[in-house]
Amino acid sequence: DGGITQSPKYLFRKEGQNVTLSCEQNLNHDAMYWYRQDPGQGLRLIYYSQIVNDFQKGDIAEGYSVSREKKESFPLTVTSAQKNPTAFYLCASSRTGSLNEKLFFGSGTQLSVL
Amino acid sequence: AQSVTQLGSHVSVSEGALVLLRCNYSSSVPPYLFWYVQYPNQGLQLLLKYTSAATLVKGINGFEAEFKKSETSFHLTKPSAHMSDAAEYFCAVSDHNQGGKLIFGQGTELSVKP
User: Fold this and answer.
1) Does B3 touch chain A (CB under 8 A)?
2) Which of B95, B97, B102 to mutate to test the interface with A (most CBs of A within 10 A)?
3) Dist CA A55 CA A53 (whole Å)
4) Residues B20-48: pLDDT tens digits?
5) If 0-12 CB within 10 Å is exposed, 13-18 middle and 19+ buried, where does residue B96 land?
6) Separation of CA A88 from chain center
7) What's residue A114's pLDDT?
């Protein structure tokens, strides 16, 4: 079945540690996105990529980094500079990134700080 | 910049009652509008979208929404609630100024009482 796979489902970060969240899609979509979800705040865009080897900052990119070396993969690194990383992280993709396209979401990664 | 406001962070209805989830948007140009649903610990799924065709949009699971330009609204309705409709619902608007990314509302949690 085609879809988006996020791993791990739960992740714990120690003080000063970088952690990487995986996102893989087999939908052959060009565009991929990372959102952060906090209770009562909806989803906020961290980074997005509309083509391989290119990505742009979203609204809350500070303390995060991404790469897009392959079309099917868009990993997110939460760096030690992100002082409040506890949240639910959602990866999404769309066919071309056009305005009227549906987003397909993964099932999310819950990141917590030890 | 475009924005979305969902009125009411929690809505509770009885099984069989009308569901009405409110969404207002601000946009200087005709927007694309979406409703997504999120079940616990999962990603989001598209319920329906408005892309400037018919103003009354029918979606999955018996939901529909009406685009009202004069009221800048895109409220979600369902005539008769089922227990399985209990979830969090997000309204979203495409941001023409930022390459087609979605701006999400803060979400409305729907509870359905037996």
Assistant:
1) no
2) B102
3) 7
4) 999 999 877 778 999 999 998 888 999 99
5) middle
6) 10
7) 83
Per DSSP, the three-state class of A104 is: strand
Q: Give the phi and the psi of residue B69 in degrees, each rounded to 5.
A: -65, -40
How far apart CA B46 and CA B36 sit, in angstroms, is 4
The verdict on B40 touching A (C-beta cutoff 8 Å) is no
Separation between Cα atoms, residue B25 and residue B35, nearest integer Å: 12
Task: Flag whether residue B101 sits within 8 Å of chain A, measured between CB atoms.
Answer: yes
Strand partners of residue A91: A34
d(CA B24, CA A9): 33
Nearest CA in chain B to A40: B106
Cβ contact (<8 Å) for B43 and A4?
Answer: yes
Measured distance CA(B25)–CA(A67) in Å, rounded: 32
* Phi, psi (degrees; rounded to nearest 5) at B60: -80, 165
Chain B interface includes A102 (CB < 8 A): yes
Q: Residue B79 burial (CB < 10 Å; 0-12/13-18/19+)?
A: exposed
